[in-house]
Amino acid sequence: MICEKRKDYRLIVVLEVLYIMPRKREKGEREMSADIRIRAVKVLHGRAKEEAMKQGLKSDDLVIVKTTVNSLPEYSVEKIEGDPVSYLLKRAGKT
Amino acid sequence: MASSVQSSEIVLVLCHSFFHDAFRPHKPLDSNVFKTWTSSRFVANLIIEKQARLSEGSFFAFTSKQVFDSFASKFEGDKPSAKLIETVQILHNSIYVVGGNALKNLSDDDSVFVICDILYSRSNYKPILVSDIPKKVEKAETFYHKKDANAKIPYPICNAIEVELILRDKFPELCNLVDRRLKKSLIEA
């Protein structure tokens, strides 16, 4: 675990030193009103995990976690059915 | 001695063609294109599956801002729906999109060559450049030979079919999970 953290840190340092991975978004870059990403239920914690448990999800299930911040963050959890790419395309109305 | 040597970790650097093949909505009719499509779809699913389990700040796949933005603008079209914009944001969060001044004036191809070179040269990672364009090797050679006529491409450049085989060998359990999910999607379709 410590080794993995060190390695991640090294990669970020390597690329940031070269100024090709700025942590702050530049003007005109994609802004997000909420953070939205795919996570496995097994890595969730706290209220996000509770939300997944309420839906009866299993640890290997994948979910779309949408985080909105209104002082205390709110987490909405949506189960991905089938493979993630097909699900995303269907969800976006592409298929 | 052997215990002090760390093995390199595979990471993928994605080219423009990969995104278009993986997120092509409908099954291609041509058999060669179909094989590339199924492998690209498999690799994209594995990237998402792997990233979903990594801690925040760790990444398995990389691309450049210009490559991602070029794909995203075509994928979204003129008037994207909220769900389509969310899909692009989800993809953006499933890979490390590298931006910044050093890359911004480079072509799509050169930007991913630079990312691969840095990952290879300055860290304990083994990058694989994923591209379905056969001429990518020639382009990479031209890029390296601009500064040094004897320079060799230090990382492999593979198409999606080749990358699928590498990933199946390296991550058998995760690949089985991807196969099960793909099968489920096929049954439900």
What are the salient characteristics of this protein?
heterodimer, A: 95 residues, alpha+beta, 3-stranded antiparallel sheet, 35% helix, B: 189 residues, 9 helices, 5 strands, globular
Structure description:
The complex is a heterodimer of chains A (95) and B (189). Chain A has 95 residues and is an alpha+beta fold. Helices cover 35% and strands 24% of the residues of chain A. Chain A has a domain of 65 residues. Chain A has three helices and three strands; from the N terminus they run αβαββα. About 17% of the residues of chain A have low confidence. Chain B is of the alpha/beta class and 189 residues long. Chain B has nine helices and five strands. A five-stranded parallel beta sheet of chain B has the order 3-2-1-4-5. Chain B is globular and about 55 Å long. Chain B starts with 8 loop residues before the first strand and ends with a helix. At the A-B interface, α1, β1 and α3 of A face α2, α4, α5, α6 and α9 of B.
Describe the secondary-structure layout.
The complex is a heterodimer of chains A (95) and B (189).
Chain A (H helix, E strand, L loop, with lengths): L1 H16 L17 E6 L5 H9 L7 E9 L1 E8 L4 H8 L4
Antiparallel strand pairs in A: 1-2, 2-3
Chain B lengths: L8 E6 L1 H7 L8 H21 L9 E4 H12 L5 H11 L3 E3 L2 H4 L3 H15 L2 E6 L5 H10 L11 E2 L1 H11 L1 H17 L1
Parallel strand pairs in B: 1-2, 1-4, 2-3, 4-5
Helix pairs in contact in B: 1-2, 2-8, 2-9, 3-4
What is the string of SSEs of chain B from the N terminus onward? EHHEHHEHHEHEHH
**Class computed from helices, strands and strand pairing of chain A:** alpha+beta
Main sheet makeup of chain B: 5 strands, parallel
Question: How much is the radius of gyration of chain B in Å?
Answer: 17 Å
Q: Mean pLDDT of chain A, as a whole number? A: 79
What is the ordering of alpha helices and beta strands of chain A?
Answer: HEHEEH
Percentage of residues in helical conformation of chain B: 55-70%
Structural class by secondary-structure content of chain B = alpha/beta
Fraction of residues of chain A in helices? 25-40%
Q: Mind summarizing the main beta sheet of chain A?
A: 3 strands, antiparallel
First-last Cα distance of chain B:
53 Å
